[in-house]
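Researcher: I'm preparing a figure for a lab meeting and need a structural model of a single chain. I don't have an experimental structure, so a prediction will have to do for now. The sequence is pasted below. Please return the structure as C-alpha cells so I can convert it later.
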Amino acid sequence: MNELVIFLILAVFLQTRVMDLRRSVYCLACQSGLLACMCLLAGFGAGGGVHFVPALLTLLVKVLFIPGAILRLVGRITDEREIISDINVNYSTLAAALFLVLGYGLVDSVQLMAFGRDVIAASVFMILTGLGLMVMRKRAIMQICGLITMENGIYLLGLFVTEGLPLVVELGVFLDVLIAVVVLVILTSRMSLSFMTTDTSVMKKLKG
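Model: Understood. Here is the structure written out cell by cell.
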C-alpha cells in the first residue's frame, strides 16, 4: 500500500508540472488507476467485497470514461496554442510541495497510526493540490483535472478513515462526479466554440 501511495503522490506532482492538456489527462487517468488499485487492496484487506464495486466504478468512470471524454474535447481544439499552457508551473509545484508538508503536519498533530499516516497525508495533499490547480490554472480542462484530483483525495480520505463508505453513498458520489464532469465538458466545448478559447479569464468580459 505504501508503494501505491508514493506513486500516487508522484502522479499528482507530475500533474502540476505538465503544461500539455493531453498529458495532464493521462496523469489524471494514471492517478485514478492507482486509486482503483488501492480500493482493491482495501477490499482484500477487509476480507470482503465492499471495495470491489467502487474499484470497478473508479476504473470505468475515472480511468476510461472521463479521460476519454476530455481527450475527445481536446481533439476538437484546432488551435495548438490552446493545448499548451503558458503559465509558470514552478508555482503550482512549489504549492504542491507545501501542501504535502502541511498534510503530514496535520496528520502528525493528531497522532495517527503509522499505517494511516501516509494515506491520510496523501489525501490531504491531493485535496489541496486539486484545489490549487483549479485556482492557478486558467484553462477549463486543467481546472476539470484539478476538480477530479480533489475528488479523488476526498474519496481516498473517506475510504480509509471510515474503513469503507456504504455502497449507496459511494454510488451517489460517483453519479454526482460523473454528472458534474459531463456538464463541465459540455460547457467547455460551448465556450471553445463561442470564444475560440478555453481560457476561463475571458469570462470576465461577460460582467455587466
